[in-house]
Amino acid sequence: MVLRRPVDCLLGWVGGLIALATAGAFAWILWDLVRLGLSQVTWGFLTGELSDGGRSGGIGPVLVSTAGILGGCLFFAVPLGVGCAIWLSEFVRRGSPWARAVIGGVDLLASVPSIVFGLFGMTFFCQKLGLGFSILSGGLTLGCMILPTVIRTTLSAMRNLPSDLRPSSAALGLSRLTMLREILLPSAFPGILVGITLGIGRALSETAALIFTSGYATRWPASLADSGRSLSVHIYDLAMNIPNGGANAAASALVLLALILAINLTASGLGERWRSRQTGLRN
Amino acid sequence: MSRSHADRVVEAGLGLTALLSGGTLLLIVWFLFEGAKPALDFGMLGHLFGDGKWQPGSVRDPQFGVMSMLIGSLLVTGLSILLAAPAGVLSAIFLSFYSPARLARGHRRLLELLAAVPSVVFGFWGLTVLVPAIDRLHPPGQSLLAAALVLSLMILPTIALTSVSALQAVPVAQLQAAAALGIGRPRLIWSVVLPAAWNGVGAGILLAAARAIGETMAVMMVCGNIAQIPASLFDPVRPVTATIALEMGYASAAHKSLLYAAGLLLVLVTGALICGMAFRRQTETSLPRSWS
Amino acid sequence: MAKLRISNLSIRYGDVRAVTDVTLEIPEGKITAIVGPSGCGKSSFLQALNRLTDLIPGCEVSGSVKLDDQCLFAAPALDTISLRKRVGMVFQRPNPFPQSIRRNFEIPLREHGTPKREIPAIMERALTDVALWDEVSGRLDQNAGTLSGGQQQRLCIARALALNPEVILFDEPCSALDPIASMAVEKHIQALRGRFTIVIVTHNLAQARRLADSVAVFWLRNGSGRLIETGPADDVLSQPRDPDVVSYLNGLNG
Ligand SMILES: Nc1ncnc2c1ncn2[C@@H]1O[C@H](COP(=O)(O)OP(=O)(O)O)[C@@H](O)[C@H]1O
Ligand SMILES: [Mg+2]
What we know:
The structure holds three protein chains of three kinds.
Chain A: H1 6-37, H2 43-47, E1 50-51, E2 56-57, H3 60-91, H4 97-111, H5 114-128, H6 135-159, H7 165-171, H8 176-205, H9 208-211, H10 231-241, H11 246-281
Antiparallel strand pairs in A: 1-2
Helix pairs in contact in A: 1-11, 3-6, 3-8, 4-6, 5-6, 6-8, 7-8, 8-11, 10-11
Chain B: H1 2-36, H2 42-50, E1 54-55, E2 63-64, H3 67-98, H4 101-116, H5 119-137, H6 144-168, H7 172-180, H8 185-214, H9 217-222, H10 240-247, H11 253-286
Antiparallel strand pairs in B: 1-2
Helix pairs in contact in B: 1-11, 3-6, 3-8, 4-6, 5-6, 6-8, 7-8, 8-11, 10-11
Chain C: E1 2-13, E2 16-27, E3 31-35, H1 42-48, E4 59-67, E5 70-71, H2 80-86, E6 87-90, H3 101-111, H4 119-129, H5 133-136, H6 149-162, E7 167-171, H7 179-191, E8 197-201, H8 205-211, E9 214-221, E10 224-232, H9 233-238, H10 243-253
Parallel strand pairs in C: 3-8, 3-9, 6-7, 7-8
Antiparallel strand pairs in C: 1-2, 1-4, 4-5, 9-10
The structure holds adenosine-5'-diphosphate and magnesium ion.
């Protein structure tokens, strides 16, 4: 590649510098987190109770609450989202008014800011349904939030299935239920899993929607009806409300980042494998 | 037949899940609207834009001036787009036309990771690293500038990644035609590629704007949260989202319903941005893809 | 004896009239070939015979089709599931389910109520009918997608045979295969004569000559597919009456 003219040269350099700066900023953030927090991350930190408002001690109860919130979230969003996507791909005509209304609603739902989900979750789940500040409320709120992610990925997985699966199943006299259960869903499963994984990633990252739904409690949660803070809320609380909470906040942020990285790698690995399987079938 | 009966039951069940999924949005808007009702009358409107201050909880002298927060949201979002859009588009150009393929792949991975970093982590980093740095430059540190910087770093990956795919969707035949005419790379990018990709790039910027205006945690942790119209980049601001997050816990009566109204406003604005984005995407795909 | 009686069958996709006013009898136990240029509605016609047209949004079928005296479309119509068990189909592109070879048999057989323990024997018989048993018996649990194109198509035929249908519809079963695989598939279809009523769409007139007992020629007239000539294979293929068919046969033969 020869950069001949000055403008060409300039464009290449400016673009390159910006790309470098982005990478630099990422490295800078990572380095600061490692510098501030890595020495705190030990087995005891991951399993221990919080003490002194979180300034010292571990994040055991927080991890348990986070898992509870995720569980509630998936329990709500996976059946609803996968069901909706199957209905959209198999039971209505593409472009029919009903399909467009549902897809439009789902896409707009994806644009709703997370703090609004928090507002809604507090009003509907905590107050109206009487679930209070609880892990369940937080999970359901996040469930609404990741619904579009699950639906969109599942829908594209279903739509990208080889198109002759449906006529070939029908020609063998399979009922729609059998076709779905035995043929379409197994083939689309890895794609659906990618959607769920992406949804988990979004749910793990969320803070604003949880502050007023699952609350701040730091004790070991006894049930889903207990209040409990997620990892992200814990980081926020340590950073904003607890003086000298920085080290533990950085350590928690490292744990959160590691979880998210693992989730992302899983999703892209699954996606890769799925694509190669799909193309492998076409030969 | 019992089998076709089972089919019909399944269809009805799935239809119900679709109805619930599509209905979630309606439910959200409905609850926001219900909550906001007391605030949505003319008497209140005069207060919103007439009052000078935001002290809705005060018993003796309640004031409901929201201008400072609307302006705060606009400034934070606008500045971050101003920073991130050129940077994102330029790095997309670099990745598509200048960098070696392997470097481009690696950098895309990096951008995807950056896009996945939770906002509370950005906020924490901004609070512990960026804010003290700005404070040394010009106190107090928690400022419009800090919010815009953190936010632009958060939306940069969105803009860069959507721009890369928009640039790469330009038909190779067009590039070859231009190259065959002896057109140099900068002119090729400026006169051939960008016009063809502009809808896709614009869609990415709208998406980023919707994210930026709705962002809460990262902004709230570094912006200072003082409801005032900032006189300089170094003054604290308080955007709409931060106001909801900070006051929802204790607000009551008119104050509370104003927070619902703010939520409704956010939904409307981000919804409009997303509709604009979908519209751009549509016009893009309806253009003739190859004319060779 | 006619197995299928089609009268005044018309098929339209929205405004496109794919097939107009076809009346035809398909003799039992014989091979009927349907030939004609592309786009003249052969596939559409075939898909109406097992109501696969139901799957296509906007597709309307009028006229009547009777399988042994039972109506397909008019009430009291056969339900589609038992209809499709009785009328099997093999497509142009091999389309095994992307699962193991065994599952390709288990799923449809279980659906139609075959007891689990009978499945291995049925599968073996069907695979033997298409000479695939020796090639795959050692790897029944491998993904069917790993077979070659010709093997996949023979698997699809075996899968249709396993349901023991009365009629089998073939829609250009050889046109996606190489010549050797194509000859193998043709040989197996030949061997099914008498056991099943067979309707085969083919582009290959030589194949029609080798296989068919009777032939139906479809043609595009006034923008729609119509049946323009039908009769015993020898008559239609050697002494066609319709001038279009004459030039079609000459063009392809010469
Ligand atoms: N799903 C469909 N939707 C709309 N038109 C179709 C569809 N399938 C076939 N057609 C139209 O019907 C006509 C007949 O097609 P087809 O039955 O596939 O013919 P053949 O198999 O003889 O080539 C063609 O004009 C084709 O464009
Ligand atoms: Mg055809």
